[in-house]
Each structure stands twice: as C-alpha cells, then as structure tokens.
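Bench log. Compound arrived from synthesis this morning; before running ITC I wanted a structural hypothesis for how NAP sits in the protein. Inputs:
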Amino acid sequence: MIRVQGDRVTDASTTQAVANIGVVGLAVMGSNLARNLASREGNKVAILNRSRSKTDELLAAHPEAEFVGTFSYEEFAASLAKPRTAIIMVKAGGPTDAVIDELVKVFEPGDIIVDGGNAYFPDTIRREKAVRETGINFVGAGISGGEEGALTGPSIMPGGSDESWITLGPILKSIAAVAEGEPCVTHVGHDGAGHFVKMVHNGIEYADMQLIAEAYDLIRRGTGKTPAEIAEVFAEWNKGELESYLIEITAEVLRQVDAETGKPLVDVILDQAGAKGTGAWTVQTALSLGVPVSGIAEATFARSLSSHPEQRAAARSFPGPDEEFTVADADAFIEDVRQALFASKIIAYSQGFDEIRAGAAEYNWTIDNGAVSRIWRGGCIIRAQFLNRIADAYAEQPELPLLASAPYFADALARGQAAWRRVVIAATQAGIPSPAFSSSLAYYDGIRAERLPAALVQGQRDFFGAHTYKRIDKEGTFHTQWSGDRTEIEAEDTH
Ligand SMILES: NC(=O)c1ccc[n+]([C@@H]2O[C@H](COP(=O)([O-])OP(=O)(O)OC[C@H]3O[C@@H](n4cnc5c(N)ncnc54)[C@H](OP(=O)(O)O)[C@@H]3O)[C@@H](O)[C@H]2O)c1
C-alpha cells in the first residue's frame, strides 16, 4: 500500500522489518509506554495511532527514541520483525475490538497482539478465543502505574499463552518496575487471568484509598488538626508498617494549598468521588463467585454515595448525635486510627486475594498469589512494603486458605483489634461514616466466629422454600415439614 505521509511517500511493501515491538494507540499511556520501551537496550519500537497527529507529535517530540513511525496497519505490520508483537493502548471496549480486527488482517500465525488497556476480563477471554482461531496469540495484560508508571516502569500483569510469554516476557521485563531486584511482571495465567488480576488490584486500590480517607476524616473531626498537620501524621505513618505509595501521596495532597483561595486544596475539591468502573467489576465478579469482598464493595459504594448530591441534600437535615465529637487524647486516638487502618487493610487485601483464588478455580487458571504480590511491590498504585509480608506468607504456605490467617497478619490483627473496635465505636457514636473500617471489622468478627446466625437463615430458607439444611450432629440433608406436623424428614440437598 502506498500512502502520502507529509511530504514523503511511504510504501508498506518496501518497509523494513526493523522493530521488535510495536505500540498502537498513542494517547498518554501508549506514548509513555512506547518511550519506555524505546529507552531500553535492544528495543526498536514501531508506533501507530488512528489519527496521525499523535504519531507526528510523538516523532517530533522524542527523536531520541528513534521510533519507526507508521501510518497504516500494513506499514505497521511490515515494520515489525517476526513474530510480530504489538501492544494496543487504546480506549477500552469497542476501540480495542476495532484495533484487533485491523491487526488480525495484517498479522500472521505466531504473531502476538497484546491488549494493555483496562479491559474487562470476560472481554479478554472472548477476544483470546477468537484471535487464537487465526493462529495469532492474544495476550490481555493489565498495566498499572498510571502515566508515570507507563514511562518509568509499571507493574504488568499479562495473561495469554505460554508461547507468547516466551517472546513477550523479556520485552515486558525490560520495561517493568523493579522491586527488590525483580521485575514487576509475571505470566499470571492463561487468557483473561492478567486482566482479572489487574481488576482485583484496582478493587484493592479502591479499598485502600477509602480506608485512608476514613482515617483522615476521623482524625480531622476528632482532633481538629488541619490538613497540613494530618499530612505530617501520614508522613510519619509512611515510615512504618503502613509505608506505601498511597499513604505517601495522601500526605502530598493534604499539604497542598490552593493558590486561588489560600485554603487547603482538599477543602476546595468537590467531595464527589468518580470511578471508571474497575471497582464495580471487582465487586460484581466477587458476587458471582460468592467471595465476600466487603471492603472493596464498601469503598465502591462510598464513591457512589458521594456522587449523589441531590440525595445528600435531601438527607442533610437527618439528625446525628447530640454531642460534639472531640477526643480526649489526640495522640492515643491517632495511634488507634493507625492500627484500625492497618487491620482493615489486611482484611481488604485478604479479601482481594480470596477473589483471585476463587477466580482461578472458576476459570481454570493457575495463579501464583505469591508471584502476584511480588509484582505489586513496585510500579503499581498499591505498591507497599506490606506486599513483602504477603509474598512471605504465600512463600511459606502457597495454598494459604485465608491470607489474614498467616501468622504475621493474624498477629497484627490480634494486636490491633482492640484499637480497631474503639475507632469504629467512636465513629459510630460521633456519626462519622466509616463504612470500610466497620465492614472490615464485621468481616473479621464473622470469619473468626465459632458459630454464625447462618443457621437461622438456613432455618428460614427451609421454612419458606424447603431449601433443606444440614445438621451439626449427623450426616445427611434434612427438611422440617413446616406446613404439616413439623416433623423432620431426610431430603435431597437443594441448597
Ligand atoms: N490513564 C491511565 O492512568 C491508565 C492506567 C492504566 C491503564 N489505562 C488504560 O490504557 C488505555 C489507554 O489509556 P489512555 O488514557 O492513554 O488513552 P484513552 O484516552 O483511553 O484512549 C485514547 C486512545 O484510543 C484511541 N482510540 C479511540 N478510539 C479508537 C478507535 N475506534 N480505533 C482506534 N483507536 C482508537 C485514540 O486514538 P485517536 O488519537 O485517534 O483518538 C487514542 O490513541 C485505556 O484502556 C486505559 O483504560 C490507563
């Protein structure tokens, strides 16, 4: 195909296959990822974007990257050495399908198409199946770290076939963040496993952010400290077991002063949190897998609640507690909040890893939770010192049934539970919403309970729907003849 490109003529039939990797989609993520790739030894990067202006701009702005600029799919394919490998970084959804359709036309069996966007994992499973029929490999790769991470080193969660990992592994290792000497990328599992794990990562991120926000709110309303003073509390916390990127940036945000009003920036930002949907996907998927990710769910719902100003206005006159909320000992209260935050965070991560375990079982993926925790130690939004402890826990017991039960975390929960209860009580009495703190504590008490009122729920289910029940003292499935003489009979298990 011959095209006029600016003042030069390009011809795909004469284009040399000089690039070992290509990037399609050159908005902020794609252009930064392309620059990252180009900066690593041994990579030659071909670039393509739907509208040519972004390609022209990237070529002009970064001559040092020595990109191979291409302006058609034919030219793009011709510029890539075999097996051709292309990373798609376009708007998730229809645009991803549109680009895949074009690439499939110009690629050959054995070539590799990687979707680095935020795809919903069932879409990745569907795409992988369809593309595999052409003999081309399709890899859904979750990429975390935002635009900065894409440029300097993200955490990468690729799925797809073992064959594609052979070619792709070294390329992705060359651009990933490095934590404790290890690149933050691993072959997570087949087809949609990478995007599934990225989805859960984002769900955990929602929970972590909400917990931090609740901690800030409680400290501010309980102690009267200013945002700048609370920034110092977070900066201090960042030196201990809570050390993480999210705690670090929280201090930065709280320190920021609005240039226009001179007020703390956090006080002039509208209190309505947005969401791009990955938290909701994590919760929807957990619901269908039967995994209680209550921390992630509460965090997602908290954003929804904040974003309904009309309902909030309608409820504003609802009464709260009569008494003013002030804590007697600010330092002691702050320490309680720190412990409550750490305990709740353990629960949120434990629930997230539980969802990965259940997803792997459901979709027949072999996912190494220890490897996942190691690739989250750098590059991604939830990067934290804490992930080393998770990696240790899975190294010690790969089939750990509940992350929170690993000795390090169980000890931390035991140490923190009294403070955690005090904080939830204080929040409840003060009328300060703390859905993520409270739900994590409820999960903790639920999962450790000797006996749950689920027995009564089973009785109710049997009463109105003959759903049967099991007994604690003998094998079998039973039903009480509620509408008859109320004698118990053996029955078929109907759940
Ligand atoms: N931003 C982040 O922090 C972040 C973090 C992780 C993952 N991601 C994911 O990374 C991907 C890229 O994100 P982004 O923020 O850089 O870009 P974006 O705003 O999501 O998408 C813009 C890009 O998509 C292209 N595009 C849109 N419709 C298209 C179509 N029908 N056919 C071909 N190309 C089309 C655009 O091309 P034109 O220039 O021609 O319009 C442009 O290159 C997304 O899936 C996003 O969810 C983003």
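What the model suggests: The longest strand covers residues 137-144. Residues 25-30, 49-51, 54, 89-92, 95, 98-99, 117-118, 143, 146-147 surround NAP (CB under 6 Å).
ITC booked for Thursday regardless.
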